[in-house]
Design a protein that fits this description.
This protein is mostly helical and 202 residues long. It has a single domain, classed as Hypothetical protein af1432 (Orthogonal Bundle). It has eight helices and four strands, in the order ααααβββαβααα. The strands form two sheets. The chain has a two-stranded antiparallel sheet with strand order 1-2. Strands 3-4 form a two-stranded antiparallel ribbon. Helix 3 (58-77) crosses helix 8 (181-197) and helix 4 packs parallel to helix 7 (155-162).
């Protein structure tokens, strides 16, 4: 899949419009989205072709798909979750992939283009992780980014972002079968979306 410039722009505008539906938290969410701007719009969802959407615009496209699948999943089972929590959990579950502010206020991107032809051609590694950014796991960076922009997270939203990589992650195993419904929905929608993007699920 290669996202066109038009598709990337449409996705970003849709992503932004969903942030307008967050009630009294809209201003903080929009502050984050507008400040990140092009960096968010062009951020890939992963570094390697064999994973998913390792291309400009991949992160926003993936996050919108996660929300779409989360809504379908909750409707299928007749579950009731607040709309604002679904939007926040899904759209911001990987926002930390954009990067992090430096102490001087400038921005340090997490993914930087791979400058090695060998890595691109032999490994499909289109991006590499920026070694100059302070070490932090993506879910933790995502939570931090929300906090940085004053987006107050409810407890289940915090856990939905923190646990979105699922129970294959050792740190998350202690939450298995104890996680809030929102966490379960976001991690499941994230998993399904990733498999769809890899062409494994339709």
């Amino acid at each position: 899949m290669t996202l066109s410039a038009e598709h990337i722009e449409q996705n970003f505008l849709k992503f932004r419009s969903l942030c307008e539906k967050l009630g009294d938290r809209s201003s903080a969410a929009l502050s984050m989205v507008d400040d990140l701007g092009e960096k968010l719009a062009l951020c890939p969802a992963s570094a390697r072709k064999d994973y998913h959407l390792a291309e400009p615009g991949g992160l926003v496209d993936h996050s919108l798909r996660v929300l779409q699948n989360a809504i379908a999943y909750t409707r299928c089972f007749g579950w009731s979750l607040p709309k604002d929590s679904l939007i926040i959990g899904c759209l911001f579950h990987d926002i930390g992939k954009v990067g992090l502010h430096r102490p001087d206020g400038t921005f340090n991107e997490y993914y930087v283009p791979q400058d090695s032809d060998w890595h691109r051609e032999k490994l499909g590694e289109m991006y590499k992780h920026n070694k100059g950014i302070i070490h932090m796991k993506t879910p933790q960076r995502s939570v931090f980014m929300c906090q940085h922009y004053g987006l107050h997270l409810k407890t289940d939203e915090y856990l939905a972002i923190l646990l979105n990589d699922g129970f294959v992650v050792d740190d998350n195993k202690q939450y298995c079968l104890k996680e809030p419904l929102l966490s379960h929905v976001v991690m499941t929608a994230d998993y399904v979306s990733t498999r769809q993007e890899k062409g494994e699920f339709t």
